[in-house]
Specification:
Rossmann fold; 2 domains; 10 helices; alpha/beta; single chain
């Protein structure tokens, strides 16, 4: 049997390595409970759905999200800045995933593990720490630190300059920010696509969740 070639595995963070949507939902439940008076006249069956829509899986600019949320719920006694400070507690709601950690431990034996992520450096690094993921990755490149954000190829080029293997695999959940630039750079691609999002050009592989990643990587020789 031909052994699998060593690869540089490049991971996104949110909703790839970490269930960011679950953490956000838990954070908002806590936020609502701390600000019940501001939501007293709201239809609570719709509040969570509206906030999730505004959040857009964390892909919307955070300043815009804070501004829009305060417009939608004007009884909240926050400024955009003070709400952002409160929102910075979101990493506290990240849940470690022992199965994922065990998989990354196995992969790190032979493969090089790298992260490229958009977002605030403090927020993203605290998520990794909360999930217990820091030690598995040789490099962590975050847009706020590097100066370029996905899908800008310059963030990818920065990561690629640190890859030790000719085989590079991009693993992410965002088709526009992760898959499209990776495909244009002719990298191998694994799309974490639990919602079965329809896309124009299919990545090399699609998974409903990251726990099946090892099986896919074993087929890449």
């Amino acid at each position: 049997m031909t052994s699998k070639k060593k690869s540089s595995l490049v991971f996104d963070i949110d909703n790839t390595l970490i269930d960011r949507d679950a953490a956000f939902h838990a954070y908002m439940l806590d936020f609502i409970s701390r600000n019940q008076a501001a939501f007293a006249e709201e239809d609570m069956s719709q509040v969570h759905a509206k906030i999730a829509e505004l959040d857009c899986h964390g892909r919307k600019d955070r300043k815009l999200f804070c501004h829009e949320l305060l417009l939608r719920f004007p009884k909240l006694s926050y400024t955009a800045e003070s709400f952002w400070e409160d929102h910075m507690s979101l990493p506290d709601f990240v849940k470690p995933d022992s199965l994922l950690n065990a998989m990354l431990e196995r992969l790190s034996v032979d493969d090089q593990l790298i992260i490229i992520s958009n977002g605030s450096a403090s927020m993203q690094r605290r998520k990794l720490h909360r999930a217990g993921l820091e030690d598995y990755f040789e490099h962590v490149f975050i847009s706020a630190e590097v100066g370029f954000a996905k899908p800008d190829h310059r963030l990818f080029f920065h990561a690629l300059s640190h890859c030790r293997h000719s085989g590079v695999v991009m693993i992410g959940d965002d088709y526009i920010n992760d898959m499209q630039p990776a495909m244009s750079l002719q990298l191998s691609t694994v799309f974490i696509n639990p919602g079965n999002e329809a896309v124009a050009i299919k990545p090399d592989h699609e998974l409903s969740g990251i726990h099946d990643l090892e099986e896919v990587l074993a087929c890449m020789t």
